[in-house]
Amino acid sequence: MQSHSPTTPFGRRSLTLAHVASQMVATERPPEKIVHKWKIFHAICTARPRLGVSERALSVLNALLTFHPETALTGEDDLIVFPSNHQLARRAHGMPASTLRRHLAVLVDAGLIVRRDSPNGKRYARKDDAGEIELAFGFDLSP
């Protein structure tokens, strides 16, 4: 689909070496690897204390996972979802926007998701003439 563009931090946060490292790990996944997204989510929930994320952050991750249509995730596909904050807040059971942004930052800091930012900061996908996504900006679920 695309070669990834550099990611910028959002808000007043600085870009750390850990953010860059998680981006590199996301691009190095083997293409033949297939995982079940809900089994991975359950494993993340089990490891929550070690990862240092809250239950609310996991509810945001759960909401993000619902935007990816496939249950089986492969290394061949780009795993970028691009919901608006409004859509994401609705799937996170009405979470306020400020709380949503805070928990997204926690997920990024934990290396569970990677931000793929567009030049204007919006989340969207550009499709080709056949209707296939050729360029997407949003949250990369591959880490």
Mean pLDDT across the residues is 82
Structural class category: alpha+beta
Distance between the termini: 18 Å
Helix share, percent: 25-40%
Number of strands: 6
Pfam families: RP-C (PF03428)
Domain Plasmid replication protein C N-terminal: 13-143
Organism: Bradyrhizobium japonicum
Protein name: Replication initiation protein RepC
Molecular structure report:
Strands 3, 4, 5 and 6 form a four-stranded antiparallel sheet that branches. The chain has a two-stranded antiparallel sheet with strand order 1-2. By secondary structure, it is α+β, with helices and mostly antiparallel strands. The protein has one domain. It is built from six helices and six strands. 40% of the residues lie in helices and 16% in strands. It starts with 16 loop residues before the first helix and ends with a strand.
Question: What is this structure's SSE topology?
Answer:
Elements: H1 17-27, E1 34-36, H2 37-46, H3 48-51, H4 55-66, E2 72-74, E3 80-81, H5 85-91, H6 97-109, E4 114-116, E5 124-127, E6 133-140
Helix pairs in contact: 2-4, 4-6
Properties at a glance:
single chain; 143 residues; alpha+beta; four-stranded antiparallel β-sheet; two-stranded antiparallel ribbon; 40% helix; RepC_N; WH_DNA-bd_sf; Replication initiation protein RepC; ArsR-like_HTH
